[in-house]
Write a structure and sequence with these properties.
elongated; alpha+beta; Peptidoglycan synthesis regulatory factor (PBP3), Domain 2; five-stranded antiparallel β-sheet; 16 strands
Length: about 425
Amino acid sequence: MTRPSLRAAAIAFALLLVAVAINAGAAGRSTAPPPTPVPPHGSLSPFPTRLATPADTTVAPTIDAGAALLADADTGQVLFEKDPRVPRPIASITKLMTALLARRDLPLHETVPVDPAAVFDRHTFGATTVLGLQAGERISVENLLYGLLLGSANDAAVALAIAADGSEAAFVRHMNEQARRLGLTDTRFASASGLDDDGYSTPRDLFRLTRAVNDDRVLRTITATKVRRIPAPKGPDRVIQNRNVLLWLYPGAVGTKTGTTAGAGECVVATARRDGRALVAIVLHAPDEPFSDAAALLDYGFDGWRADTVVHAGDPAGEVAIRGGTVPVVAGFDLTALVPVDDDDRSQRRVVDPRAAYPPAPDERVASLVVTAGTNTLGAVPLIVPSVPPPPTVEGPWWMRTADAVAGAVGDAVRSVAA
């Protein structure tokens, strides 16, 4: 080969190497979120590029966060918890309730004017995480929700609150009313944004709130979105990036929300779906690595637990003492639950809530069978009577038997009213 030919071949080979390197770099960048600042003058989003998780995903991980919970999103079965009922500040996780109320009270495509009270200047506390809304600007409820849930925009939270109720204070009252309706007994909200650190909740309550948010198709779609372009009054669009890095780094991640303040620490509520199973991981007051903690919990839920039918319909469950006698019972239906992969049928069963009188009707529910594995409740099934045995012999004079029957009937009526 001549010298010019060798030179040309060398150049071509070098160009090929450059192209391969560029393509490899582009491929690598596509798997991690870019460090896009939140406009107009926000800080860089705290995006790690990798998750530090345990190698053995079949055992419960050690979680450094102050509180945590892992549960099945569909059934509510809890797989892991740490201080699940201790109230703590929750930072911008608050915005899940803000979004839920806004969806209830405001049409999605309605355009609302921005109240001056929702405008954050550079010196306003919380101004590093905003859309940069301007007084009088008109913006759709939908775009405010995207700014709220992706970029955790504090001005979007206040704008939605005022659009829904005229003031943030009135909106917060409705937030707390909705919390009571959802059964969030250890939750109190003090703002629409969560900046204040006066509001608080628990992993147990936040799991209920997350299920309510995930039941809304629109909110479910929004929290699963990585990037959203939102028009500005003038100039280029606002480009809002989801701060939940699990959407980029964790296989199967589909939402939900992050938050951080000095009082709350690092907080993550993450939903992931894999192989037909949906899990929610909640991490509160993490000193660092909240996404790794959430990923470790999700790995444990997917790899350390398997679906199994732990009770079959018709399975004998012994006898239950009811008022006036004892009857044989069987399981009323199948109970399928998640069990630890290393479980060798070490589940425990106990009968609760017997509340029938003799003679029960065939197939009548007379009690419940609760199944647990360790500290985890796998579920409960009704216990029914397959057939009614002959009535027991009652000793004593007729007036004692009559009084016993009347007392039993009164007791049944009282229990029925109480239930």
